[in-house]
Amino acid sequence: MTDPATTDPHPKxxxxxxxxxxxxxxxxxxxxxxxxxxxxxxxxxxxxxxxxDFAGPPPAPSAFQQRIAERAPALPTFRGTPAPNLRVQHTxxxxxxxxxxxxxxxxxxxxxxxxxxxPWDVRLITGPDSFRVCLRAHHGFxxxxxxxxxxxxxxxxTSAEGARLHQPVxxxxxxxxxxxxxxxxxxxxxxxxxxxxxxxxxxxxxxxxRDVPLAALRHxxxxxxxxxxxxxxxALGMVLARxxxxxxxxxxxxxxxxxxxxxxxxxxERHLPGNRLGVHRLVxxxxxxxxxxxxxxxxxxxxxxxxxRQRDAFRALLENRATxxxxxxxxxxxxxxxxxxxxxxxxxxPDGLVAFGAPLSxxxxxxxxxxxxxxxxxxxxxxxxxxxxxxxxxDRSSLLAVPDHWAELLxxxxxxxxxxxxx
Length: 423
Known about the structure:
Layout: H1 32-38, E1 47-55, H2 61-71, E2 88-92, H3 96-106, E3 120-126, E4 130-138, H4 144-155, H5 173-188, E5 207-213, H6 214-224, H7 228-246, E6 256-263, E7 277-284, H8 291-307, H9 310-319, H10 324-334, E8 342-349, E9 354-355, E10 358-367, E11 375-382, E12 385-391, H11 402-416
Parallel strand pairs: 2-3, 6-8, 8-11
Antiparallel strand pairs: 1-4, 1-10, 3-4, 5-12, 6-7, 9-10, 11-12
Helix pairs in contact: 1-10, 5-9, 6-7, 6-11, 7-8, 7-11
């Protein structure tokens, strides 16, 4: 499969399709978010890349290709893909730096959306004693949680699952109101702070990442009586406060708002294509002086989302077919950097994933970010590590420093309460 050209620096963004027959690819029962994402059909696309690292000798490319060819047709996600073995490509990486450069490169490559062939592929990147598998898909075709289940089914030596799924529950009226209010505030409220470009020449990459031991976040979460994800978000708020001080711009006084992705995928939707997720606004505590204060500010907001069962409201809104064209346009309008500067997601790849005799060692969820599309930060939990990844274009490249600062903050906070490898 040949990689399409990516030479147009200023692609034109299409409007959301107005009828199912106009969708460039087939997604069963596309919801408004699918339709909005699929309207990015030019050289720059929101491509999701799930990168899985395995500690062990890499498989022979022919054996890897055969496994994908045998398993893909059985998954509803990839059904209808002709010759799935042709969706597999292999490259070598001499070291970890080369591995990350190649992952960054392929995470930006678009798909051909002119036909009805599902937009996905698999890349095998091999090193001397380890290998990385990158499952890529257009975001309008598959979300990150769906990618974890697809990858487990395609790769695992034994039966394995992806990220946690949630049984549907009827939403509360309060949750529906909160969700609609969030969308309205995103579209019509005050513009949030936007990460500025870093000083100096434009970076050569659009993605960065850094791992922190899961034990560090668990220790801190237990100390504060919150979740691991809330600690991760609180640390992100502290890091963004630092960026605001270091890179003062005309909008420095505005709130730093993260749009938090929340999966609504149910067990019955484990292997279905499309997006099963909603979002809520999180005002990051950039004025918090300590991690304790930041954790408290984040937990107040995320606790309100959980207590009102907002996840179920997101699901109901996506399933509402009354005004699909209006909803698709609203989502498309929200997918602009000036109204949604930053999207944050969190995903867990469960323990036990082994491929070709090699255990999973770490993982990252990436998103291609381009001009006027939201920047992205993800927290990917796998085995005993949590990886913070950042994705940004040149105009918001200061965000690429987040993973390093985030890891340093959490490591020092862990040591301060008696944990860490030096204790």
